[in-house]
Amino acid sequence: MKYSTLFGKTTKEAPHDADSPNARLLTQAGYIHQLMAGAYTYLPLGLRTLKKIQQIVREEMDAIGGQEISVPMLTPKKVWEDTGRWGIDVLYRFEGAGGKEMALAATAEDMVTPLVKSFTSSYKDFPVLVYQMNDKFRNEPRAKSGLLRGREFNMKDLYSFHLTQEGFEEFYEKSKGAYLNVYQRCGLDAMVVKASGGDFTEKFSHEFQVKTEAGEDRVYVDKESGDALNREVVPEEDWENTDKYDIHKTIEVGNIFPLETRFSDAIKFTVQGADGSPQKVIMGSYGIGPSRVMGSIVEVHHDEKGIRWPKAVAPFHVYMASLSSKDEAVQARIDEVAAGLHDELEAAGVEVLWDERNTRPGSKFADADLIGLPLRLVVSEKTLAENAVEWKERHEDEARLVGIDDLVEQAKQWLAAPERLTSHE
Ligand code: ATP
Ligand code: MG
């Protein structure tokens, strides 16, 4: 893709409430644009990254047997009344035509439980593992930190339905592995943390937490046992106890919940067991916010010049800058080589953002660092004199030359190689 045709450009502007690196850098690099606090437009670069994260989540959910559905985000009062949640703080409630009361989906147990009830009649229909990935709406009192806390945000929510506690527990453990795969593939080092089960269960729920300064959560890692706990489940008298705990500022990037029969009981959802008697339905819910994951990646992977995307979620793999020359023949040669490499790399599965603007090298390099694609290539009069292209990875300080004939093969190998990511905080 040619940079000159890309919709959305780098800018010095940042939202006045850009209180965190992800809000500032994603805005300045042209990934997102704030419509109002807590609501962002995804520009082409931003949407490409969000979709890559969503695809990773989708692959991992499919791998544990999840089936994707899509539930309306526009929902009737009745489903929330049935589960006793019409009054919850974060729900956006409003009246539609004819005074019909509705809410925007803040989560979806309330819609999915009756849905599954209507499609199951016997024990043979279980387990059921369904998920969706769409926007959720929450009237958060404080929308802040860019994509970390939105009022409209993207969420993957999976719901599992089981007839036995063992079946539930087996899936619950499996889901932890799938979640850790998601974060690892996205370049995040997530801890599994015990948290409160809310009003659903006496048991713990489990959160996936990533260390970052912008995080609003506090994780306490027990120095002896290695157990990681959300502060909400640490006794208050131990909150300052640094002898017992290592305390970290974190952001929650996922949360899985044993729901027991909280929602199935609410709508009297039982199923005929093998012996003909009615059986209770045990549920779990499993959430990840792909948009918050995107913000968290930027929180962890950036430096003073801009973003440093892991390869798997970068909107493009390569930023190729072709530098201008006053000599027409040289310029023609630069354009020809760059166009050829662009097409060959794309054909090899290496995605290229080609900066062919007639601007100063310095401003191209500044944009390259800000946008943060993992590999920068430069085609210029100087490099062509060596029959080469300049190659610099985003985390490297020094550039080197790679022969033009060798470049596509090297880029393919680079893309396929596992990545060693270091947090830059
Ligand atoms: P938090 O405690 O941070 O408010 P939560 O516990 O209310 O989050 P869940 O209901 O467990 O969140 O939602 C599942 C996932 O959705 C979270 O782990 C997070 O990744 C994401 N998420 C929740 N609220 C938001 C939000 N306001 N903006 C962006 N992502 C969110
Ligand atoms: Mg949570």
Please characterize this protein's 3D structure.
With 425 residues, the chain is of the alpha+beta class. It has two domains: 298 residues, Bira Bifunctional Protein, Domain 2 (BirA Bifunctional Protein, domain 2); 110 residues, 3-Layer(aba) Sandwich (Rossmann fold). Helices cover 31% and strands 29% of the residues. It contains eleven helices and 23 strands. Strands 3, 7, 8, 9, 10, 11, 12, 13 and 16 form a nine-stranded mixed sheet that branches. A five-stranded mixed sheet has the order 20-19-21-22-23, with helices on both faces. It has a three-stranded antiparallel sheet with strand order 4-6-5. A hairpin with a 5-residue loop joins strand 14 and strand 15. Helix 1 crosses helix 7 and helix 8 runs parallel beside helix 11. The mean pLDDT is 96. The structure holds adenosine-5'-triphosphate (ATP) and magnesium ion. Adenosine-5'-triphosphate (ATP) binds next to strand 8, strand 13, strand 16 and helix 7. The site of adenosine-5'-triphosphate has 16 residues, from strand 8, strand 13, strand 16 and helix 7.
What's the short story on this structure?
The protein has helices at residues 21-28, 44-63, 77-82, 109-118, 165-185, 262-266, 290-300, 328-347, 361-371, 381-385, 404-416, and strands spanning 32-36, 39-42, 67-68, 74-76, 92-95, 101-104, 128-137, 152-162, 190-195, 205-211, 217-222, 228-230, 245-260, 270-272, 278-280, 282-288, 302-303, 306-307, 318-322, 352-355, 375-379, 388-393, 400-403. The protein is an alpha+beta fold.
